[in-house]
């Protein structure tokens, strides 16, 4: 027992960056109900418990249906602020020192919410949190891959006038939502435009989709980091490339379990990736839906995969290396981790 408490403290004390986090996936059922009341939005659930009971997923799409329904209560800037601040406080309690937060403007603009409202609410919370605690955040504006290339371009054009006002936080572009049948090629041109504009690029690949989507995200979209990527293991040449080029994977263990990407945490390939030298990181993805925040994810893999303290420190170090932080801040955080790894 004492040993477990120690390990818990160690996980929380490690400086960590969270790099794969959908802000809409941090909406807890209690906040969904509160915002529904505030905005007079009706929900097809009569209680917090009945909503929580519906979180029994069989695959990515079964989750996405509920995730988009939950996000429908977000209307005002204050709503986006409150959601983001609740997440940041929770992450801070877990020992997160930096986050790179994905958000999906199309989920909101399709319902008539102005993109300015989305940016203002999320960035407002991020700036207040940085000022008050030092926890820093960057924003990754993500395109929904089940929607068209034209819709992604429209979203980019609508957001670009805001770039200067948010240049302290909005640094990257991502790609999420239903993977299979929506391959990287579909977004080659819009990602090229984002690259030309100087954005950092990431994409979900190899969660439910094949290893080929991971290769294509690298070669066709020119992303520098892969979200999930767990199916890369099916292609040995790709695995060697990930190791040689130290391409980061943002792995989300509890998400993989809840969406049936893996059947049992003890079979998760995270430990194999780590021990082969892949730059894997641990993240929560959609913590309100998958049963845990980032420290819960570290705890789950530490236990099921029997990770050592030095492996946990390696995972925290990887999260700093894989972040988009400036090198000076990376060096300072890595020195703190190194001191804890001895
Ligand atoms: O894990 C995910 N995969 C794809 N789309 C998503 N949108 C939120 N979370 C996810
Ligand atoms: Zn994700």
Automatic annotation (TrEMBL):
All copies of domain Adenosine deaminase, residue ranges: 15-338
Residues annotated to bind Zn(2+): 20, 22, 204, 285
Pfam hit, one: A_deaminase
Binding-site residues for substrate, renumbered to this chain: 286
Catalytic reaction list: adenine + H2O + H(+) = hypoxanthine + NH4(+)
Record flagged with keyword Mitochondrion: no
Keywords for the protein's UniProt record, in alphabetical order: Hydrolase, Metal-binding, Nucleotide metabolism, Zinc
Co-factor binding comment: Binds 1 zinc ion per subunit.
Cellular component terms (Gene Ontology): cytosol
UniProt EC number: 3.5.4.2
InterPro entries membership: A_deaminase_dom (IPR001365), ADE (IPR028892), Ado/ade_deaminase (IPR006330), Metal_Hydrolase (IPR032466)
GO molecular function (one): zinc ion binding
SUPFAM superfamilies listed in its UniProt record: Metallo-dependent hydrolases
Site (Important for catalytic activity): 228
UniProt-listed GO biological process terms: adenine catabolic process; hypoxanthine salvage; nucleotide metabolic process
Catalytic site positions: 207 (proton donor)
Cofactor dependency: Zn(2+)
Purpose of the protein: Catalyzes the hydrolytic deamination of adenine to hypoxanthine. Plays an important role in the purine salvage pathway and in nitrogen catabolism.
Family indicated by similarity: Belongs to the metallo-dependent hydrolases superfamily. Adenosine and AMP deaminases family. Adenine deaminase type 2 subfamily.
Name of this protein: Adenine deaminase
Organism in which the protein naturally occurs: Pusillimonas minor
């Amino acid at each position: 027992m004492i040993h477990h408490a120690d390990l818990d403290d160690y996980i929380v004390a490690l400086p960590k960056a969270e790099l794969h986090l959908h802000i809409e996936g941090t909406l807890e059922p209690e906040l969904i109900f509160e915002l529904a009341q505030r905005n007079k939005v009706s929900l097809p659930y009569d209680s917090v418990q009945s909503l929580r009971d519906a979180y029994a997923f069989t695959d990515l799409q079964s989750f996405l249906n509920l995730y988009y329904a939950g996000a429908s209560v977000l209307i005002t800037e204050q709503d986006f602020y409150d959601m983001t601040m609740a997440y940041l406080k929770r992450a801070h309690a877990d020992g997160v020192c930096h986050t790179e937060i994905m958000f999906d403007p199309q989920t909101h603009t399709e319902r008539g919410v102005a993109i300015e409202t989305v940016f203002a609410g999320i960035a407002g919370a991020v700036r207040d949190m940085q000022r008050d605690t030092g926890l820093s955040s960057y924003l990754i504006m993500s395109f929904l891959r089940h929607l068209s290339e034209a819709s992604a371009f429209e979203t980019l054009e609508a957001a670009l006038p805001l770039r200067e006002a948010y240049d302290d936080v909005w640094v990257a572009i991502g790609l999420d939502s239903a993977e299979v049948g929506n391959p990287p090629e579909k977004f080659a041109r819009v990602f090229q435009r984002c690259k030309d504009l100087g954005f950092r690029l990431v994409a979900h690949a190899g969660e439910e989709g094949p290893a080929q989507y991971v290769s294509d995200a690298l070669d066709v979209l020119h992303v520098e980091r892969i979200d999930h990527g767990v199916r890369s293991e099916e292609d040995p040449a790709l695995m060697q490339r990930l190791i040689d080029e130290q391409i980061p994977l943002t792995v989300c263990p509890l998400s993989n379990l809840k969406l049936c990407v893996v059947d049992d945490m003890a079979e998760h390939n995270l430990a194999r990736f780590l021990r082969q030298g892949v730059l894997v990181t641990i993240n929560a993805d959609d913590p309100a839906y998958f049963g845990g925040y980032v420290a819960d994810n570290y705890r789950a893999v530490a236990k099921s995969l029997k990770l050592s303290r030095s492996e946990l420190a390696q995972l925290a170090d990887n999260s700093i290396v894989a972040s988009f932080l400036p090198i000076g801040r990376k060096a300072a955080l890595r020195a703190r981790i190194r001191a804890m790894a001895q």
